[in-house]
Amino acid sequence: PLLVTPVSVKDLFAAKGITGVSLAFVQAALFMAIIGGMSRQPLIILTALLLG
Fold first, then answer.
1. DSSP H helical ranges for 1-52
2. Would you state the pLDDT for residue 4?
3. CA 30 remoteness from chain centre
4. Using CA atoms, how far apart are residues 44 and 29, in angstroms rounded to an integer?
5. Whole-number Å distance between alpha carbons of 40 and 33
């Protein structure tokens, strides 16, 4: 693990997972907005993107 910070392995993987999910969600939401997929029921679409 990283020896320069007091982070645990569990915290490291949690942060990595949160970062990965966030980046994937933003990319998918941006893609859907560009192609016009957010024109109908955007809240349901964003929820499905976040869960799926």
1. 9-35, 42-51
2. 82
3. 12
4. 12
5. 11
CA pair distance 4, 9, nearest whole angstrom: 13
Cα Rg of the chain (Å, integer): 16
> Which whole-number Å values give the CA distances from 48 to 5, 13, 51, in the listed order?
36, 24, 5
State the Cα–Cα distance between residues 26 and 20, nearest whole angstrom: 10
Q: Which two tokens stand for residue 8?
A: 């645990």
4-41, pLDDT tens digit by residue?
888 888 999 999 999 999 999 999 999 988 998 888 89
pTM score above 0.85: no
pLDDT for 1 beyond 70: no
3-state secondary structure of 38: coil
